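Thanks for the sequence, V.! I ran L-lactate dehydrogenase right away. Repeating your input here for the record:
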Amino acid sequence: MRVRSPKVAVVGAGAVGSSLAYAALIKGVARHVVLHDINIGKVRAEALDMAHGSQFFPQATVEGSDDVEITRDSDVVVVTAGAKQRPGETRMDLAQSTVNLMRKVIPPLVERSPNAIFILVTNPVDVTTYAALKISGLPPNQLFGSGTVLDSSRLRFLVAQRCGVAVRNVHAYILGEHGDSQIPIWSSATIGGVPLLEWERQTGMLGESVRDGIAEEVVNAAYEVIAGKGATNHAIGLAGTEIIEAVLRDEHRVMPVSALLDDWYGIKDVCMAVPSVVDRRGVGRNLRQPLQDGELGALHDSAQIIRATLTELGF
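Predicted structure:
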């Protein structure tokens, strides 16, 4: 009998979608990758360009179409389609037009792949994820957003760069909104198993002013990249692929994805990034890591910012 290969559908063949599909192919995460976009010329060209290099990545099939039918029976559906963020524009500025787009995009995808795990990458991702959950009618474990997986990677990169260690030896999270109100959780961060605040006491490398500068740089990272080249795509493509991998390989990996919260430190009925277990069933339990009072208060504030936008949008 022929064993069915995992199928990943990427909705949106723009900078983010094409980079994510490319990363998934290069890493061998899925044997069947399909791209869907309303721009038929663009989506076919992106798929063909990747297929031409198929000799150089693990055995896989890649296809592109403007017909949503190509997504049928996917195991994972990643939604990257949305309004493009322009220089100087915040992620929240995109909310209204993006949510309106989700009303059109989500139902036909769910109809064709009702058992798929849906991952939202479209900004503002926390607002979009909550809206997509309501539009789709799917259970909360089955649809979640990319959250601050990328922001946390940026944080770890900057800490590693400052301290002269490998980025894989830095463990630190950005939580809350994937946006301007995001919070670096310094109290539980570690470098090679050494608490980051203890590292500061030993080396003097990560004083409060340095940490504040790093946090600001993480918040502004996307704006800097967008100003320079028009879009962020490579890093989010890699981050999205990590999430897909955790799902398809049932890794039970802890990741700061944007999931619907139900009384996480008193925060409820909002989607935002907290450490959560990601596996074949989607997003599972949310972990309650120890937080300092200032961190917890800031996370409540971040949740209120997301909730305010949702209220303005009628959710």
